[in-house]
Amino acid sequence: MAVETGRSGELKRMSGLGVGPIYVLVTFGLTALGWFVRGSEPLAGGAVTNPAAAIAMTVIGAALLVSGAALWASVVFGRRSILGYVRRGELCTSGVYRYVRNPCYSGVMIAASGAVVMMQNLWLLVLLPVFYLVLTLLVKYTEERWLLSRFGNAYAGYMKRVNRCVPWPRDLRSANTGIPRAKRVAEGDALAGVHAEGRGHGGESEACLRDYSFDKSPPRIG
Fold it and tell me: Minimal CA–CA distance to 137: which of 126, 127, 125, 129?
C-alpha cells in the first residue's frame, strides 16, 4: 500500500487499492490456517458433533459466504464500479455506500466469516471478531484519516450516518428523523460538488459524492 504524508504527518495520497491487499492477506491467511488446524488438538475439542447444529452452521456459513462475495462483486463489477470513481478521485455515498462505508472490505470480512462458520468448530469462531477488529484498525488509521483530510466535513458527516464495517439499512434508521426526504436530498445536492484539489488515490472508500443528507441517525453499530 503506497502512502504519502506531508510534513505534519497528514496523509496526502494513498494507493488506489487502499488497505485491501493487506486485509485480504490477513483474513484469507487466518481462514486457511483455521481450515488446516481445525482437527488438531486442542481445537478438535471444539468440533460440532450434533447433526442439527452442524447443518445449521453449514447453512448460515454458506449464506454469509455468498452474501459477502455478492457484496464485494457489486462494488467491483457493478454498474457503478468503484474503480472508475477512484480514478476520478470522487467520494460517493450512494448505492451500497448508503449502508456501509467500506462494502468491498466488508464483503471480504463477511465471506471469510462464513467460511469459518462452515468449518463447524466453536474454537475457530474467535476469528470472527478478529476479522472485524483488524478491518476497523486498518481503515481507521489509514483511509479514514486520508479521506477526512481530503473531504473534510462532507466525509465526517458521512461517517456519523453510515457504519464502517457492518452493512445496515440507513433508511430504516432515518425514518423517524422528521426531515422530509426532498429536503434531505436538496441539502445533499448542495454538497454534491465537494472535491479536493488534485486527483490522488484513496482506496475502496472513494466514489462519487451524491445523495448526501443530514440524517440524525442513532449511533452506528460497526
Answer: 129
